[in-house]
Design goal:
With 157 residues, this protein is of the alpha/beta class. It has a single domain (5-156), classed as Mannitol-specific EII, Chain A. Helix content is 38%, strand content 25%. It has five helices and five strands, in the order E-H-H-E-E-E-E-H-H-H. The chain has helices spanning 23-36, 44-54, 117-129, 132-140, 144-156, and strands spanning 9-18, 58-59, 66-67, 80-93, 101-111. Strands 1-4-5-3-2 form a five-stranded mixed sheet, with helices on both faces. Strand 4 (80-93) and strand 5 form a beta hairpin. The chain is globular and about 35 Å long.
């Protein structure tokens, strides 16, 4: 089965730049959009925060670090992904070593409805994260529309 991950990307859920004072602040802003557009339940934000404390999602990718906060499918109404390109990086616990915090510049907040899609989508994102030029281009965008088009093209490949 081939999954079209571009269907998860919604321009109205992208925040470029995302002004946030902390990861919790960023979670609240990105989750608010997901909830306002009906993609997640009102339990989603707290579930993401709770999961992040146990299983942090900050990921070192080189120059531009990312985070992929998400939670269980029971908090999701319809699959989507909110993306925030932070105006200034915020600190996340490193998924590989939770005792270490890293500065994250781009957040990919996942709301996946089908648990079976999660490994494939995370693998797709991991492939994107290896593309240093793409991450640099995403982090340098100041327009939501330009960021959306760039990420849409990358997900389509």
């Amino acid at each position: 089965m081939i999954v079209d991950f571009t269907l998860l990307l919604k321009e109205e859920l992208m925040m470029v730049p995302l002004v946030a004072s902390s990861r919790e602040d960023a979670f609240e802003k990105l989750a608010l959009g997901l909830e306002q557009y009906g993609f997640v339940k009102d339990t989603y934000l707290e579930a993401v925060k709770k999961r992040e404390r146990v299983f942090p999602t900050g990921l070192c990718t080189g120059e531009i670090n990312v985070a992929i906060p998400h939670t269980d499918v029971e908090h999701v109404v319809q699959g989507a992904m909110a993306v925030g390109v932070l105006e200034k990086p915020v600190r996340f616990a490193n998924m590989e070593n939770p005792k270490v915090e890293i500065e994250v510049s781009i957040i990919f907040m996942l709301a996946l409805k089908d648990a079976h899609e999660q490994p494939a989508f995370l693998q797709k994102l991991a492939g994107l994260f290896q593309d240093k030029e793409l991450l640099h281009n995403l982090a340098s965008k100041t327009s939501t529309s330009a960021t959306y088009q760039l990420l849409l093209s990358a997900l389509a490949c």
